[in-house]
Amino acid sequence: MKNFVGGNQVVLLRNGTEYFPALEQAIDDAQTEIHLQTYIYEDDEVGRCIAAAMIRAVGRGVNVCLLLDGFGCKDMAMEFVQELQQGGIDVLFYRPKISPWTFKRNRLRRLHRKIAVMDGREAFVGGINIIDDMNTPGHIPPRVDYAVRVQGPVVSAIHANARYLWRRIAWARLKRVKPARVTYSQEPVGSMWAAYVMRDNALHRDDIEQAYLAAIEAAQSEIIIANAYFLPGRAFRRSLISAARRGVRVVLLLQARVEYWWLDYASRALYPNFLNAGIEIWEYHTSFMHSKVAVIDRHWATVGSSNIDPMSLFLAREANVVIDDEAFAGMLRTDLELAINKDARLVRRADWRRAGLVRRTLAWITYNLVRLTMGMVGFPDKA
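^ thats the sequence. predicted structure below, dont judge the formating
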């Protein structure tokens, strides 16, 4: 990738049990400026803990900017928002208008990324919202997810992007933007090559998808993708199938538990083509898998917020970090292999045939309805 930079230190964080203590400590260590941007911020024990840390930072004179998605945080109590603001935290909402009576592309453009940047020197990127891992649909704990803690030259790109979006939303709301108080350092703090890859609706519409496709097309031995909501477009499907047919082991670790029935059925409509090409499909069943990660050829890895579905790849604001490092990729691969062997079930072609005509038909109907919906919002040939 052309935007890889060296000299970074990237630490893998598994689930909220590792992520939230690291995030709280980084907030407590911040001296000048904090940007936290997330899709969901829950008023629970975790949310209160992170809020308290941000308010402590304000007390030290740190500028704290919290950007929340209007849909993901639509149920956040105004009393909690006021608490945050009274504590000195600057709070803004991305696209707060969520009327169900308007069917427009803009209403579907959400802030789905989860990033935090402290002092322009340390950043967190991943798929973990500010919500307790135990807070899952059907109360099936805990949620499985990943994030990374990043230090080094690549952080400057993460901070610049976070501040740009904050400034844009603030100006649109006629809010005063405090001057930046950070100075970037290009001094190496590690030996890892890393790149910050985002998706927006202007200059970076397909950057995350293209990063995946380039790595898949260059793969020589193995591709492991763990993704919660998996409904790739034509180009992505063809790349995976082409890799499998040239002898690359392709493994998909997908969600078994149903959270959004329409996406569940639409995803399963693609199973036959993948299985016929020799792609392994494993369904994670122990709890809710919210992961959005991949490891390719044991050296290329990505961790972030982007699902491989139409909402993430073509509509939402997303953020991933790509790491080219054998040790990091090996650690993530070991974690995924453990999940596959311990908590997942292999899907076989016979399983799909035994699913029944009604279920198979419903899957294809749902899949085509998703394609129709994407066409109605301006992406007729993507799904």
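The chain is about 40% helix and 25% strand.
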